[in-house]
Write a structure and sequence with these properties.
Elements (H helix, E strand, L loop, with lengths): L16 E12 L6 E12 L3 E5 L6 H9 L6 E6 L2 E6 L11 H11 L4 H14 L15 H16 L8 E6 L7 H18 L2 E6 L2 H7 L2 E5 L6 E6 L5 H20 L1
Parallel strand pairs: 3-7, 3-8, 5-6, 6-7
Antiparallel strand pairs: 1-2, 1-4, 8-9
Helix pairs in contact: 2-3, 2-4, 3-4, 6-7
Length: about 260
């Protein structure tokens, strides 16, 4: 049974917004072959907020995350990220198979120039946070799928979670639990909420699963079919989860149907 958790907003940093998108568009290619993935995106996300981006496949959700991470540049509009070190978590754990779990978590800290002692200590803290204490010496093939995703989450937090005095980080999650079985996915959703509450990290979570969005997010943002633009937003907690689920599902179906027509 899934338990709906009350999601309280962690303490925000001095700046009001972690992410600001103003009239953002993204077009791939030029001329007759150009494909517009996003058009006129206006969106703000507060520090410490958990936002789910919801939409049908191909609506530009992943492209939007790529713009925020700096992997892509917007064609039009302005993208502003007021956080430290945005980091990604994908559907696949994408761990280095020759490294232990602890060394995988240490990797972004090493690339950031942290000394061996500091990064080992931080990796141990993060493995404990994701309930993998004592598993740091295991390699990916020795771990279950859920455990590998926990290591990936710890690694992402190593890059995104601020050190004392820094601006809080930004965690970009692109359907990270989609490949897991239903029970493991349910557990990982609960764990993510626990970790988010503990760290205050800003989270943008991409999904096409309405139930997952309603369970996890403080705010659900629905994108239209390509080219993606913001259709509507919902604040979670303002109505019963089942009622909100049905309302969002109905609106998503309208978006998909209008595109198919």
């Amino acid at each position: 049974m899934t338990v709906q958790m009350e999601k309280s907003l962690p303490v925000r940093a001095e700046r009001a917004t972690a992410v600001e998108l103003d009239g953002v568009g993204k077009t791939f290619g030029t001329g007759a072959g150009a494909v517009t993935a996003l058009r006129g995106i206006d969106l703000e996300v507060a520090h410490g907020e958990f936002v789910c981006l919801l939409g049908a496949s191909g609506c530009g959700k992943s492209t939007l995350l790529n713009l925020l991470s700096g992997l892509e540049s917007a064609t039009t509009g302005t993208v502003t990220v007021n956080t430290a070190r945005p980091s990604f978590m994908f559907q696949e754990a994408a761990l280095m198979p020759w490294l232990t779990a602890a060394r995988n978590v240490e990797l972004p800290l090493q690339l950031a120039g942290q000394g061996r002692g500091a990064r080992r200590g931080r990796a141990q803290e993060l493995l404990e946070l994701v309930r993998l204490d004592g598993m740091g010496d295991k390699r990916p093939h020795e771990l279950s799928g859920g455990m590998r995703q926990r290591v990936a989450l710890a690694r992402a937090l190593a890059a995104a979670t601020s050190t004392p005095g820094d601006t809080p980080g930004l965690l970009l999650m692109d359907e990270p639990f989609a490949a897991l079985d239903a029970i493991t996915r349910d557990v990982m959703q609960s764990e993510l909420l626990r970790i988010w509450e503990a760290t205050g990290t800003t989270v943008l979570f991409v999904t096409h699963d309405v139930r997952e969005a309603v369970r996890l997010a403080q705010r659900v943002v629905l994108l239209s079919s390509r080219p993606g633009t913001v259709v509507r937003e919902w604040q979670v907690g303002t109505s019963e989860p089942a009622q909100l689920h049905d309302e969002i599902t109905g609106r998503l179906r309208q978006v998909i149907t209008s595109h198919a027509a």
